[in-house]
Fold this sequence. Notes:
227 residues; alpha+beta; Phosphorylase Kinase, domain 1; Transferase(Phosphotransferase), domain 1; 2 domains; five-stranded antiparallel sheet; three-stranded antiparallel sheet; 7 helices; globular
Amino acid sequence: MNKQQPEQQRPPRRDEIRDHTVEVLVQGASNKADLLVVDVGQGPVVVKDFASKPWWTRVLGRLQIHREVRAYRWLAGDPAVPRFLGRIDPYALAMEKVEGRQLAFAPERRSDGPACIRGLRAAIDGIHRAGVVHMDLRGRENVLVLANGGIVLVDLAGAFCLRPGGLLHHLVFRWLTFPDETAFLKWKRNLTPEDLTQAELAMESRSQRYRSLWPFNRKPRPKEGQQ
């Protein structure tokens, strides 16, 4: 992550966002947040914003922002996530702008796949030790690689946070990590398939069976004559 960003950066106010937006990273659909780069004179920051969406999306977005804020605060100081700058209002939050590239498209994935996998493993282990599961690491847009080879995990909207040592953590945390662990295997399959262990291959097989049972993961059968 870009450690050159000044520590005194603050989240922009709602009335500053429109006039100080310098880039639109993602123009979200009606049910998705916009992702903006905003600079009020202290360097660019990333703003996730639901304010311009229909009322039903704003209702859900408010809950999502609350959940994501909790996860970023929980992981404060962890180099594997962007530095959280603050909640702007019920519909938006701000975080540091990470100067990284999506691992899925970075040259490093081919030139130094083992190092990328080690970095990803360390990042996942770090958030898990803190009691956080990401839940969406399969998304290629959610895993970034920095110029120095570090890995950063973004978009914590789906994250679960459980206090390590607590009863609930003891009972269910291991099971909650399953999506993160199988996502890691997906990345390992793509970057260093020759390093997959027998235990990992078995977990990968179980994951594929479970995912095949989920109706939204099923692809429609091609019509006759189509490939």
